[in-house]
Amino acid sequence: MKETPLYQYHREKSRITEFAGFEMPLWYTSISEEHLAVRNRVGIFDVSHMGRILLNGPDSDEFLDHMIPTRAALQPPGKSFYTLLLNERGGIEDDLIVLKNAANDYLLVVNAVNTSKDLEHVTRRAKEYRVGVSGITSQSTMIAIQGPEAKRALKEAVSVNLEELNRFRFLPYTTSGHRCLISRTGYTGEDGFEMIILDSGVETPHFALKTWNDLAGRATPCGLGARDSLRIEAGYPLYGQELDENTNPFEADLSWVVAMDKPDFVGRSALEEISRQKESRIRRGVVLSEKVPRPGFEILNGSGEQVGRVTSGTFSPLIRRGIALCYLAIDYSEPRTPVEVKVRDSTAPAEVTRPPFYDESRYGWKRERE
Fold first, then answer.
1. Which three-class secondary structure state does DSSP give residue 45?
2. pLDDT digits (tens, 9 = 90+) for 173-203
3. 11: alpha, beta or left, given left = phi > 0 and alpha = psi -120 to 50?
4. How would DSSP label each residue in 166-225?
5. Mind giving me the DSSP string for 265-287?
């Protein structure tokens, strides 16, 4: 089992679980308490298990534009953006965040379960280009600071001007001789930041632990349990649940990531063909009036016919209801459509929605500021 640079803290303070080959904190106090801390105040997460891949060299712009369906070369330096790695069939090999440091200079942040696969995939295809590819996951640390008070907590812990740092922008800085990046991104639906310490990793964790402890005095440490319930509540997909190599961006409700006017990228021909056909299913959410849905549960129409399947489910500590992400037949995908979720030997009434599951005027990054 692998450990992150912050494992010493987790071992002493949290309930440990295995995820993607790492020993990670599941919770410190409780999933519900940590979830609500992020929605109402600020929480911190160790996300060092996520893969980090450097991409640089004179052909990096051209190469990345070939690899992803989003326009990379047109992004300005200092931009973070969400995108996908596709296969030739248009299926999703992974979803990722890309940080563009400069022309031909990128950092890819990929899912932990796919780090080895993605590194091999990118390295193999890069052989035809003047591009250097290097994995830096174990040499670095990544911490997410999330919630409406995230900026305050981060400003108190690090001496960096965050006033001009807008959403999906990042800035590099050096502190105590350590090279860092702060990106205004996250996976909770809230305003927040992700900090990458580029040179304090598993072998040299001292500075990473000091930074975490500084933040832990100002924010609630949170585990993977709250990270999962928060991302479900926000409607964010997880690879292996909502996304896989047989799912295309259109049915995953991610068409906004795909620039079909690009002349070429991996999977483009397949997506052109798919776009001419009527989609049979779409990613949506359902809210239950009772019971808690789990992955694999069937979704039925009023006649008892299956019209969908739950991909992720949880109890929302915020709205106090069972919620799920799912794939639904197109005819049942409109918000407020009544359906039923099969829970073991019975069914529970549910209603279709398009996430997030919370009131965006009160919660999440769009909330009304006081």
1. strand
2. 999 999 999 999 999 999 999 999 999 999 9
3. alpha
4. -TTBEEEEEETTEEEEEES--SSSSSEEEEEETT--SSS-HHHHHHHHHHHTTSEEE-HH
5. -TTHHHHHHHHTSPPSEEEEEEE
Backbone Cα Rg of the chain: 21
In this prediction, residue 159 carries a pLDDT of 84
Nearest to 349 by CA among 365, 358, 337, 357: 337
Segment 119-147, tens digit of pLDDT: 999 999 999 999 999 999 999 999 999 99
Angle at 229 between CA 228 and CA 230, to 5 degrees: 90
Lookup: tokens for 196: 């990458």
Nearest Cα neighbor of 90 from 231, 236, 296, 279 is 279
Tokens encoding 302:
């009023």
Please state the pTM of the whole predicted model: 0.96
Q: Which residue in 314, 294, 307 sits closest to 357, CA to CA?
A: 314
Q: In 3-state terms, what secondary structure has residue 247?
A: coil
Q: Give the integer Cα–Cα distance in Å for 304 and 22.
A: 41
Domains in the chain, CATH or no CATH each: 7-47+138-233 (3.30.1360.120), 52-120 (3.30.70.1400), 278-370 (2.40.30.110)
Give the C-alpha separation, 103 to 73, whole Å.
7
Secondary structure element (H or E) that encloses residue 32, with its range: helix 31-40
CA distances from 143 to 75, 138, 198, 217 (A): 24, 14, 12, 14
